[in-house]
Design goal:
The structure is a homodimer.
Chain A lengths: L17 H20 L7 H8 L3 H7 L3 H17 L2 H5 L6 H32 L3 H27 L9 H17 L1 H6 L4 H17 L3
Chain A binds a DNA duplex through helix 1 and helix 3.
DNA sequence: CCCGAATCTGACGAAACGTCAAAACCTGGA
DNA sequence: TCCAGGTTTTGACGTTTCGTCAGATTCGGG
C-alpha cells in the first residue's frame, strides 16, 4: 500500500514558472543518470536530490513517486525513435531491403545503448502489469510492430511468406528480438560476437521474416 | 552503499537443521508469491515474514538480502527448463522439425507463465550488471543458445542458411525472441492473437532460422 | 525597496531496513 | 521426567528512507 496522489505541480493547476521548469528538468536528468549508475533497487530519491543540490521535498514537489518520474522519462525518450518508422515504411524491394533492415536494427541498438536503463524499468513495470507503463511502451512499440506486420502481410500476399504466420505476432516477435538482443549485447560481445556482427545477423533475421527472402 | 555479508546459515558453517530448512523454504516460496502479486518496487521483506508467520529477523537469518533470495529462486527454477534441451538436440529433419520447434516454444512459454515474476527480476538484475544474476541467467540460457547455434551451423554447412549469419547470435536472437514474446503474451492476446497462434508463429520463425526452410 | 506570488526546504512522523543479544525451542541421554 | 547443549526464532533497537507540510526564501514588477 502506498500513498500516492497526483504531483501538485504547485498549487492547483498553475503552470510551472521558468525556475520550476529548470529544477524539474534537472531532477529528471538526475533520475536518469542515477538509473544508469546503480540498479533500480538501489535507487534513492535522496541521492537524486543531492545530485541536483536540492532536497527530497523538492523531488516530491514535482513527482508523486519515483515511478512517476521514470514514467515521464519513458515518454520522453520515445520521441527518440519515431524517425525510425520511416525506415520501415520505405518500400522493401530488391537489394535495398536488406539495407533497410540493417539500418533499422542499427538505429534501434543505438536507441537502447542510449536509454537502456530507462527502457529496462519501463519494460519491467509494464510486465508487472502497471497500466501506465504498458501504455507508454505500447505507444512506442506498436507503430513498429504494425508497420512490420503490414510488410509481412504484403509478402504473404505475394506468396513469399506462409499464411500460417500471424503477421502481427511476427512483427511483435521481431521487435522482441531486437529489444532483447540490444539489452544483452554485452553478453554477446563477451563471447566474441561484436556489434557489427550482431547487427548483421539480426538484420538478416528481420529481413528474412519480413520479405520471405534470404 | 549497502551493508551486505553472507547469510550466516547459523553460526560458522554448520549445515541447517530440519526445522531451519523448512522455514527457509517457506520464506523462499513466500518471496516468489510476493513477487507474483506486487511489483519489485512494492516488495517488502516485512510482508514476506508476515506471510510465513515469522519475523523479518528470521528472513535475514537465512538471506543476506532480498536479492539473494531471488537469486536463489532463479537458480532453482532453472532446473524446470533443462528437460527442454533434449527437444532441440533431437535431429531436426523433414516434417518433424517444425514439430520440434512448436514443442520448444510451447514449453518455453509454459516456463515463463509459471515463473515470469522471478525471471523478470533475474533479467533486470542481469542487465543492470549484477554479475551473480548474469551468471545464473547464462547458466540457464547458454545451453539453449549453443544448441540452436549448432543447428544453425549444420544448416549453413548444408547451404540452406547464408554464412553471413553468425550462428551464435542467431541462436541468441531466437532465445531473445521467445523470452520476450512469452513476457508480453498478454499484450498480444489483448489484440486478438491467442496463445496458439503466437506459438505457431514463433515456432515458424524459429524453424525458419534454424533450418533455413519454410 | 516593497509585495505578492512562486519556489524551496527544514523538520517531522511513519515505515522499512538490518543487527544482535537473549529467549524459546527442541532432542537425546541420565 | 528432567536437564544440558545446541538450534532456531525474535523482540527490541539504531539507522535510513519515505513522503508531507508549514513556513522560509527567492524573485520580479511596480
Amino acid at each position: 500500500m502506498k500513498r500516492s496522489k497526483a504531483a501538485p505541480l504547485s498549487v492547483g493547476k498553475r503552470p510551472l514558472g521558468p525556475r520550476a521548469v529548470i529544477t524539474r528538468d534537472k531532477l529528471l536528468q538526475a533520475t536518469a543518470a542515477m538509473l544508469e549508475t546503480g540498479g533500480l533497487l538501489e535507487f534513492k530519491v535522496v541521492d537524486v536530490a543531492r545530485a541536483v543540490g536540492t532536497s527530497p521535498a523538492t523531488f516530491y514537489q514535482y513527482f508523486a513517486s519515483v515511478e512517476d518520474a521514470i514514467l515521464e522519462l519513458s515518454a520522453i525518450i520515445a520521441d527518440d525513435l519515431t524517425a525510425l518508422l520511416d525506415v520501415i515504411n520505405k518500400p522493401w524491394r530488391g537489394s535495398k531491403s536488406l539495407d533497410n533492415a540493417r539500418q533499422f536494427v542499427d538505429e534501434y541498438f543505438r536507441h537502447y545503448d542510449e536509454h537502456g536503463a530507462i527502457l529496462r524499468v519501463r519494460n519491467l513495470s509494464a510486465q508487472e502489469g502497471d497500466i501506465r507503463f504498458r501504455k507508454v511502451r505500447n505507444d512506442a512499440m506498436l507503430p513498429f510492430t504494425k508497420a512490420l506486420a503490414a510488410k509481412i502481410e504484403e509478402s504473404q500476399e505475394a506468396g513469399r511468406v506462409v499464411p500460417e504466420i500471424n503477421a502481427f505476432a511476427g512483427g511483435g516477435g521481431l521487435m522482441a528480438m531486437m529489444e532483447r538482443l540490444a539489452a544483452f549485447r554485452y553478453e554477446f560481445e563477451a563471447r566474441g560476437v561484436d556489434r557489427a556482427s550482431l547487427v548483421e545477423t539480426t538484420a538478416r533475421m528481420v529481413h528474412q521474416t519480413v520479405t520471405g527472402r534470404r
